[in-house]
Amino acid sequence: xxxxxxxxxxxxxxxxxxxxxxxxxxxxxxxxxxxxxxxxxxxxxxxxxxxxxxxxxxxxxxxxxxxxxxxxxxxxxxxxxxxxxxxxxxxxxxxxxxxxxxxxxxxxxxxxxxxxxxxxxxxxxxxxxxxxxxxxxxxxxxxxxxxxxxxxxxxxxxxxxxxxxxxxxxxxxxxxxxxxxxxxxxxxxxxxxxxxxxxxxxxxxxxxxxxxxxxxxxxxxxxxxxxxxxxxxxxxxxxxxxxxxxxxxxxxxxxxxxxxxxxxxxxxxxxxxxxxxxxxxxxxxxxxxxxxxxxxxxxxxxxxxxxxxxxxxxxxxxxxxxxxxxxxxxxxxxxxxxxxxxxxxxxxxxxxxxxxxxxxxxxxxxxxxxxxxxxxxxxxxxxxxxxxxxxxxxxxxxxxxxxxxxxxxxxxxxxxxxxxxxxxxxxxxxxxxxxxxxxxxxxxxxxxxxxxxxxxxxxxxxxxxxxxxxxxxxxxxxxxxxxx
Length: 484
Hints:
The protein is globular and about 75 Å long. The strands form three sheets. Strands 1-6-5-2 form a four-stranded parallel sheet, sandwiched between helices. By secondary structure, the chain is of the alpha/beta class. It contains 23 helices and ten strands. The two termini are 52 Å apart.
């Protein structure tokens, strides 16, 4: 087969899960998926690109594949494509609407609305609860995530009244706001959320079913790390804390590591309750990435035909078969020499950030970019057809340069704009620094600034030196070696 044809038809999927229509066909069930299905944890953490949304979509779109989900209904609580509804809704809120208790109740009302149609369509014994919900105007017949969110915000708006009694004690009352909803005034009574969720849980227990409310894309909905965003997410976790005690109704939250830290690190009452339901962060090693790549490669009939023509059988795939497949895909080494890693090792080394984290999103992105660069080389006849592998070292180096610049601008600087000026001070410099060179680059406040840069993974601290990882070097024209 012609190499250009194989590469042109090679579909590795989209590195962004929500844009990958074939994801369910080659999704890799890691140990994190297995742990999630055991229902021990409800909060799934990971860095951007670690595979949270891929897990979310694979489970929601293909629950029948998993035996443990036989009696579980997964309910998406957010629109996975387009502008997140939570973002659009929260942008309409002013300062007066950002009382934390009001927001906690807004999340609870929203979750009730998300699950209610499933309750009424599939189960019985909900009639008394329905009367209670209707009386208090907690549920809306309107369809769509945004409409339900707006309804929940309007319905939960109230103020807290503290009254000091004659004996010195204090009585706290909740007065519902005077906002009108569908031309009806709210009744001034306190909502018993424990009664609501306990009744829903009892209905589910009676029917031996579970409802898992699945929430993802919170980093897109609340991207600014502003006080408003942190308050919105903190109120969600407080609402989660109150609901997680039930057996059959669960809220499953997929959230980025740094956002979770920002929400919880500066004071969070009863954090241990939330932490005990939080899974360890999704992490990837070489074996998992190889499995992910292999599944995507073998999804392509053209590639499988190319393997057949090169006498590689995929009937029983073992470690030797995997090595043979990757040797067909890549040149053995990008940088030759006994002390240098093989190509996959080289790719991983060039994708690690200063926290030693690398993601499947970047892994697939760099390989797919190298495929494109290799096709360009083949058009210019700079790659010999006599070479048995499909992608050579030059294409991989070009792909690395592209990914480095992309990660720097779109992710690092995009998510931490306050660090832009400090980061660009390292442009055109060497990779390794000590205290003296950092003082010259970052000024008198270098200690504070370098701590922040270490925290976001731009630079790695090693004893008394600091080293910028390969990931960001090409994007800033940083060269190997010491600056001191």
